Amino acid sequence: MNFHTRKWVKPEDLNPNNTLFGGKLLAWIDEEAALYAINQLENKKVVTKYMSEINFINSAEQGDIIEIGIDVVKFGKTSITLKSVVRNKMTWKEIITIDKIVMVNLDENGSPKPHGHDKIEYTKDRIAKS
Predict the structure, then answer these.
(1) pLDDT band at residue 4, thresholds of 50, 70 and 90?
(2) What letter would DSSP give residue 119?
(3) CATH superfamily assigned to domain 2-129
(4) Prediction pTM value
(5) Residues in Cβ contact with 124 at an 8 Å cutoff, skipping those fewer than 6 apart
(6) Are the beta carbons of 103 and 33 closer than 8 angstroms?
(7) In 73-83, which positions are buried (b, 16+ CB within 10 angstroms) versus exposed (e)?
(8) Strand locations in 9-124, DSSP E?
(9) 67-122 residue pLDDT tens
């Protein structure tokens, strides 16, 4: 699991229980999944099609630093399936897990488009090929 993004839990991120609002966390995960898919599929037109069961394990509080992990489950013809784990950066306690996030690659008309990728590629490796 690669943890690319860290977030600092601020007062505006809290729910009435003074813990991290789940909707805010899901928005952060969705954005992270989209960024990851855009980089892997080399296309800015990528959308979220599906998220599997969302398992809230622990809460986060104001001042906590969390990190969002994304990993590839599989490459489809027009999609990439990811999984996510969010954890507390200081304690490594898991906050949330999502086993499947399906991101779909789109063409200029918004229709699913084959992407031609079948393995994880890193930017540094693409640059080295140039």
Answers:
(1) confident
(2) S
(3) Hotdog Thioesterase (3.10.129.10)
(4) 0.92
(5) none
(6) yes
(7) eebbebbbbbb
(8) 46-51, 54-56, 65-75, 79-88, 94-105
(9) 999 999 999 999 999 999 999 999 999 999 999 999 999 999 999 999 999 999 87
Distance CA 121, CA 118 (A): 9
Which two tokens mark 13? 């991120």
Q: For residues 5 and 27, what is the distance between their CA atoms, to the nearest angstrom?
A: 13
- Residue count of the chain: 130
The domains of the chain are located at 2-129
**Runs of H (alpha helix) within the chain:** 22-41, 123-129
Q: Which residue has 């779909």 as its token pair? A: 104
Spatial CA neighbour of 82 closest among 95, 69, 93: 69
CA distance readout (Å), 42 to 32, 66, 118, 126: 15, 27, 13, 11
Cα atoms in the Cβ-side hemisphere of radius 13 Å centred on 94: 11
Beta bridge partners of 104: 47, 79
